[in-house]
Amino acid sequence: MDRAETSLEELLGVVQLLRGIRCPFWLEGGWGVDAMVGRQTRPHRDIDVDIDAALEDEVLSALADRGYAVETDWRPNRVELRALGRGWVDVHPLIVDGVGNARQAALDGSWHEFPASFFTVGHLGGVAVPCVSVEAQRLFRSGYELRTVDHHDLALLDELRGP
After folding, report:
1. pTM, rounded to two decimals
2. Dihedral (Cα; 38, 128, 90, 71), 10-degree rounding
């Protein structure tokens, strides 16, 4: 039986793995919000992580060595991997330019643009972790019907943004 939750311990293991192969990365999604808050605030199904596309093969190989197998392959937009009993990692390859801006291939052939201001640092489990900003997190939660977890995350983002 597979749990539908990815633990903080597993997240920190994936962070260590990415650092070990010297891959620039940024958490987004629920763990990205929690990094901005500085603590885990809810259960998470997966780890949404933006990576430098130049190291995509190394990242996927390292995740495979950790027991993850590809479940959804929508490259060049994203690849979702699963490790039984430990959860999922949703990898989003970004093409990063020399000044910190990035772009991600969209499913329709266009591009999602990420200005350098979208990238920041948060903390989880006492560890500094790169993540996407409050502004980016809010933007990423638009254009679809919000789920309960999205409402939870948006409320936290509102608190971080202040009045």
Report:
1. 0.94
2. -110
**CA–CA separation, 78 vs 67, rounded Å?**
19
Closest to 14 in 3D by CA, of 121, 89, 126, 125: 89
pLDDT in tens, 70-85: 999 999 999 999 999 9
Cα-Cα-Cα-Cα dihedral sign, residues 83, 89, 90, 95: negative
Give, in degrees to the nearest 5, the angle at Cα 91 between 49 and 71. 135
| Omega of the bond leading into 76 within 30 degrees of 0 (cis) | yes
Residue ranges of domains in the chain, CATH in brackets: 8-161 (3.30.460.40)
Q: Could you write out the DSSP letters of every residue in the chain?
A: ---S---HHHHHHHHHHHHHTT--EEEEHHHHHHHHHTS--S--SEEEEEEEGGGHHHHHHHHHHTT-EEEEEETTTEEEEEETTTEEEEEEEEEE-TTS-EEEE-TTS-EEEE-GGGEEEEEETTEEEEEE-HHHHHHHT-SSPPPHHHHHHHHHHHHHH--
